[in-house]
Write a structure and sequence with these properties.
about 180 residues; 5-stranded mixed sheet; two-stranded antiparallel ribbon; 7 strands; about 35% helix; disordered C terminus
């Protein structure tokens, strides 16, 4: 039940993202999160199941959360870069309160979506899920040309409490030129 709410909520964000992206020249194709349906089968031992469109091939992982809790991007294809841009867009659009963490699929059709949020009660979640990923994202995300095309703001890594780390300054200085391409 929960995974339906998460995937279908992410799908709604993706529809808004797609509308904005299509309005911008040169953006091109946009990922689509397919709907996940909850079905009730009263005569079955397990009365609830999920159902979704057959994607017609093996799923590829584009953006995933590893077991150690780190966010990983799998490759540099156009699809992967646009999934990363979608993550950035959702993060910025929700003021850093929601992040789509996992996206996999076949071509432009995405499934098995996961989120991180610090919003209690978001989509019926009893507690927030993986809020540490929200803190990691600004440092982990590498803006790409599609972030620039949409005019997304470069994300500033969350500053640690206390003294400034010299490595933080170097890291942001290295990523600045990428946006200017």
């Amino acid at each position: 039940f929960q995974e339906c709410k998460i995937q279908n909520s992410s799908r709604e964000y993706c529809k808004i993202f797609a509308a904005e992206a299509r309005a911008v020249p040169d953006f091109g194709a946009v990922p689509e999160i397919i709907p996940l349906y909850l079905i009730y089968r009263p005569a079955n031992n397990i009365p609830y199941a999920t159902m979704e469109e057959d994607l017609g091939g093996p799923c590829e992982q584009y953006c995933v959360t590893e077991r150690d809790g780190t966010l990983v991007v799998r490759g540099t294809s156009e699809i992967v870069l646009k999934c990363c841009t979608f993550q950035h867009w959702v993060y910025q659009w929700t003021n850093g309160n929601i992040l789509v963490t996992d996206m996999e699929g076949v071509g432009w059709k995405m499934t098995n979506v996961r989120i991180a949020t610090n919003l209690k009660g978001f989509q019926g979640l009893k507690e927030s899920c993986f809020p540490s990923l929200l803190e990691q994202f600004p440092a982990a995300h590498q803006c790409n040309r599609y972030c620039s095309i949409l005019g997304l703001k470069m994300l500033e890594p969350t500053k640690p409490k206390g003294s400034k780390s010299p490595s933080m300054g170097r890291k942001s200085a290295q990523s600045s030129p990428q946006l200017q391409k």
